[in-house]
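Z., the sequence and structure:
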Amino acid sequence: MGIGYAALAIKAGLTPLQTVLFSIFVYAGAGEIIAVSMLLNNATALAIILTNFVVNLRYLVMNICVYNKVTKSSLLKNILTAHIVTDESFALFSLMEESSIWTYSGISFTSWLSWIFGAVIGVTVLDLLPVIVTNSFNISLYALFVAILIPSIKKSRQITLLVAITGIINIILQLLIGNWSIITSTIIGALIGVYLVDDKYVSNVEEEETA
């Protein structure tokens, strides 16, 4: 994914240095791919920032859960480690009996370095790869979201319906408001999900994650 992000970033006009620095200071995975994809489509800075704010708002919830679990920490440690949370590091730490902030930091820091290293590899070998390979990186964002969605879709018809509705809304809004379609469809989809998705499904997911 890091290499795929780098390919999209270079295609969007970022320099190799900017591409790597973006991974260091932003480090949002899907958010970075969304940002460079929107940049490629000439989106405004405000649209990119607001879209990433909505998409990455889940990290706020993840960090709250993590810091409620750790036994010994401090505000400074929490601030320093909040930047490097990922879906994978959060999931792994949540399933562990370990509650040390240092364990969580180690998992997250390793993930951060691997993403940066992926970006470095991407900007280094991009010119050496065939065009058909570099063009295939354009679907990396969709592949990432599919990988995230499939487990939930398999468990709930309501989630399947919600994903379909949100996708249709996004397609329609792309024709009407362009790059603002992602953030708008995300918000609309979330509001629909509040009424569409059964509370029992959410409770079962929480119980599984706790177990």
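Residues 1-144 form one domain. DSSP finds 13 helices and no strands in the chain.

Let me know what you think.
H.
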